[in-house]
Amino acid sequence: MLSCKEVAQRASAMIDGELGAWDMLQMRMHLAMCKGCERFIGQMRITRGLTEAAGEAEAEQDADDLRISAILSQLHEGKQTGG
User: Fold this and answer.
1) Long-range interactions of 48-54: CB distance < 8 A, separation 24+
2) How far apart, in whole angstroms, are the C-alpha atoms of residue 39 and residue 73?
3) Residues 6 or more apart whose Cβ sits within 8 Å of residue 14
4) End-to-end alpha-carbon separation of the chain, Å?
5) pTM for this one?
6) 3 close to 37: Cβ distance less than 8 angstroms
7) What are the φ/ψ torsions at residue 22 (nearest 5 degrees)?
8) Which residues contact 81 (CB under 8 A, 6 or more apart)?
9) How far apart are CA 30 and CA 32, in angstroms?
């Protein structure tokens, strides 16, 4: 059976789906018996989800900023050409 330290070391690989069948089985067996590690993995999943959501929101904000900059540039050019 895996130790808590080994579970912590393999946690990211588990969440990313990078573990083989045997390693995944060992992780699941440990998590079924160790509530501390189960909570740890749960917190990692939540953190991963929030990080991904924040990255998506930032990308959307960057796209909005580019659109606003383009509009402002067009307006500025229009003023300079008298249009």
Assistant:
1) 48/15
2) 51
3) 23, 24, 27, 41
4) 75
5) 0.65
6) no
7) -65, -45
8) none
9) 5
